[in-house]
Every structure is written in structure tokens, then in C-alpha cells.
Write a structure and sequence with these properties.
An eight-stranded mixed beta sheet has the order 3-2-1-4-5-6-9-10, with helices on both faces. The chain has one domain: NAD(P)-binding Rossmann-like Domain (Rossmann fold), CATH 3.40.50. It has ten helices and ten strands. By secondary structure, the chain is of the alpha/beta class.
């Protein structure tokens, strides 16, 4: 794995005209800013979102900040197996240069929720759906990148591979952490399998650090930050950042020619804020045995084996 080389200016991104990037959850939050920043490179950006109204609002906002932006919407429901299965055909393109697995849900209510297939909903949406979507889109990603957005909380998660449905001792915050750990393990395991097969596709993992709405610039109607909210968030700015900055590691993973498969990109300052930089892959994230077990279980649960 090469070390980081050369300066990277988050506000002067390399051009990517002629390329196509799909961002799941590109209609809101960090995903919106990933899409907006990628649109500024001249690439075609596809917003993967199940909500047409929100996708239209995000498209209008991006175009108001990026003149002549090439943005389109792919109706995509991460809780619907058929929506994932037909995504490639509905994209109607020959090549996808990057799939950004960004969308995620966090439920705080204590009751456990399931998707239509009976899987715990956060694990199913955040991990299994992206696992399956990557498999269905594999033919379009022959020389592209799969960029998986995880979370700092993944490092403290306790993942029980024998109970991925989380039927025992359910706790919502832990369920979210488990889903993000599984997602990041998937990104690293995918790259190992791609390298072993000689594929020219690469899989890169990132996390956004601490990204708060109160530190995020307004993008009405996608996100509106009041003066009061901005002022209340100022003290947090010493350690944390807005979602526009939380998008930087994913954007670099998509665009930087020197970025390589198997890398982990995160904010420079304590992994919480700042420009994107490389982080060593260690601890649970480097557990190849755990990653292989999660992969095998994910294949069984989804019926899809990405790039097999």
C-alpha cells in the first residue's frame, strides 16, 4: 500500500468529465455534499434515493451551486430487493466509475425493526443492501471504485456473526455500530477478493469523522441552518465539522488517482475533522477472519456474491 503523496485541495478537485458516479443517499446529509462536490468535477452524478421529492430538491440545490451540473436520479430503495436487483438495468449505462455506498439509517427507538426479508433494519439497510447492490452493479464497475462510508463507532462495535439478525439483547445504538463495522469489513474484504482475482476494480473505505448539522452550511430546502443553530454549534467546531467536510474523505477516495484499494481515508485531526488523510487499517477492521465470516453470512442472507 502506498503512502499519501502530494497535496490535496478539497476546494480544487481534479476534473472527471465523462465519468459517472452513483451516490446512495445522495439526496441528504453527507451524501448530498459528496454528490455536490463530485458534480463540480464535470462528472455525471447519480443520486440513489427512494424519495423522488427529496431527490428533486437535492438536484435543484446542486445545480444552484454548480452551474451546468450533470445530475440525475435513480429511484433506489435499499429495503427493496427488487429495486437493488434492477438498479443496473435502470441506470442504462455501460460503465460506472464509482459506487459510493453512503446511505444509512440510525433508529433510536428501543424496539427492533425488520426489513421485508426479516433482517434487522439498520443492518439490512446499511450493510446488506450495499453488499447486494455492489454485486448487482459489478458488471458496470470493471475498472471502477467501490467507496464504502463507515463510521468511527464501528471500531467499538461487538459483532456477533452468529446473530446478525440481532435477535438477542437488541440495543439500537449498538445495532447501528454493528452495521457500520460490517460495512467497513465488507469494503476491506471486497478489495482482498478483487486483488486475488486480478480485477482492476478497487474497494476503498472511508469515514467522515464527527459531522454535525449545526456546523453544516445551508442548502435549502435540503438543509436549512438557522442563525441560532449556527451559534450553538460554534463551540463544537474546535473538534468537529460540518457534513460538507465529512464528505471530503469519500470524495478523495473517488477522485484521487493515487488512492488504492484497501485504504482507509478519514479526517486528519484525530479522525474527527480536517482534510482527508490515510489511516492505518488495524484492530477489528484488520480482522480478516471476521471479515470472511461476515462475507459468507452476507452471501447467505442476500443470495448475492459480489464479483464472484
Amino acid at each position: 500500500m502506498s503512502i499519501e503523496s502530494g497535496p490535496w485541495d478539497v476546494r480544487r478537485l481534479p476534473l472527471a468529465e465523462g465519468k459517472t458516479f452513483l451516490v446512495t443517499g445522495g439526496n441528504a446529509g453527507i451524501g448530498y455534499f459528496v454528490a455536490e462536490q463530485l458534480a463540480g468535477t464535470g462528472a455525471t452524478v447519480v443520486l440513489g434515493s427512494r424519495d423522488q421529492t427529496k431527490a428533486d430538491a437535492a438536484t435543484a440545490s446542486i445545480r444552484s451551486h454548480v452551474p451546468h451540473a450533470r445530475v440525475r436520479h435513480l429511484p433506489l430503495d435499499l429495503t427493496d430487493t427488487e429495486s437493488l436487483k434492477t438498479a443496473g438495468a435502470r441506470l442504462a449505462i455501460d460503465r460506472l466509475d464509482a459506487l459510493v455506498c453512503n446511505a444509512g439509517v440510525l433508529f433510536e427507538e428501543p424496539s427492533r425493526r425488520e426489513n421485508p426479508d426479516g433482517q434487522e433494519l439498520m443492518f439490512a439497510t446499511n450493510h446488506l443492501a450495499h453488499f447486494a447492490l455492489t454485486g448487482w452493479l459489478a458488471p458496470l464497475l470493471a475498472e471502477g471504485r467501490v467507496v464504502t462510508t463507515g463510521s468511527l463507532v464501528a471500531k467499538s462495535a461487538r459483532l456477533d456473526v452468529d446473530d446478525l439478525r440481532y435477535t438477542r439483547g437488541y440495543e439500537p445504538k449498538e445495532a447501528y455500530s454493528r452495521s457500520k463495522l460490517a460495512q467497513m469489513l465488507f469494503g476491506f474484504e471486497l478489495d482482498r477478493r478483487l486483488r486475488a482475482s486480478g480485477s482492476r476494480t478497487s474497494s476503498i473505505v472511508n469515514h467522515p469523522g464527527g459531522a454535525l448539522d449545526s456546523l453544516t452550511p445551508s442548502r435549502p430546502p435540503v438543509h436549512v441552518r438557522s442563525t441560532g443553530t449556527r451559534l450553538r454549534g460554534l463551540p463544537s467546531g474546535a473538534l468537529l465539522q460540518g457534513k460538507h467536510a465529512g464528505a471530503w474523505p469519500a470524495v478523495r477516495a473517488v477522485l484521487d488517482p493515487s488512492a488504492q484499494g484497501g485504504q482507509l481515508w478519514r479526517p486528519r485531526v484525530f479522525g474527527l475533522r480536517g482534510v482527508p488523510t490515510l489511516e492505518p487499517v488495524k484492530g477489528k477492521l484488520a480482522d480478516t477472519e471476521l471479515a470472511a465470516r461476515v462475507w459468507a453470512a452476507s452471501v447467505e442472507l442476500t443470495g448475492v456474491d459480489p464479483f464472484a
